Amino acid sequence: MTILLLSGSPSTPSRSSRLLHYAGDKLKALGYHTVSLNVKDLPAQALLHADFTHPELIAAKQKLAEAKAIVIATPIYKASYSGLLKTFLDILPQDGLHGKLVLPLATGGSQSHLLALDYALRPVLAALSADHVLPSVYATDVQVDWSEQHGLQIDPSIIKRLHEGVHYLAARLISLHEPELSTAPVMRMQNRCSA
Ligand SMILES: Cc1cc2nc3c(=O)[nH]c(=O)nc-3n(C[C@H](O)[C@H](O)[C@H](O)COP(=O)(O)O)c2cc1C
Hints:
Layout: E1 2-7, H1 15-29, E2 33-38, H2 44-48, H3 55-66, E3 69-77, E4 80-81, H4 83-90, E5 101-108, H5 116-127, E6 132-133, E7 137-140, E8 144-147, E9 151-154, H6 156-177
Parallel strand pairs: 1-2, 1-3, 3-5, 5-6, 5-7
Antiparallel strand pairs: 3-4, 8-9
């Protein structure tokens, strides 16, 4: 079962991508196969012109179509998810997320836009027919730090949220696709966001 790790940050290095790959590593440890897609690596002109026929965009959409679940990570830009991510969501078919689970992650400069994933991204995912959008994880810049000396340092509250998100995603996947393996009731997360 493949899970797509979709990054919508135009930056390198990227805090939101680091959160994404942290979650991806946890999913791999649970036995899932993950594939990565960075929207910034796709041809910009084709994205901006919504060129549905471009071979690289077709290949990217195919990657998404083959995944049972998607972890989407975005920076918060101007109180919303990134425009780069929107250019990719715009070229998906209307039911492009049908049958898929989605775990949204975001990083922002402050807590001011803690709810941006819920008020901005979630309606778009619903319009694309996502089966289930899991509670999102939001971290501020100070909660996701990286240095040569210490490597990736994520605030313990965010690590906890990421672990919950990953386990919730795995439990939902099992109950949907391998119900005979589902022994425990699907866990409920209590809060939607952290910061
Ligand atoms: C153009 C731009 C707009 C931004 N707008 C916001 C914003 O509205 N709210 C916020 O909390 N952070 C904002 N930020 C800060 C980024 O969301 C934050 O630094 C984020 O962690 C960057 O993620 P990345 O490293 O994955 O690109 C903005 C940053 C940039 C460059």
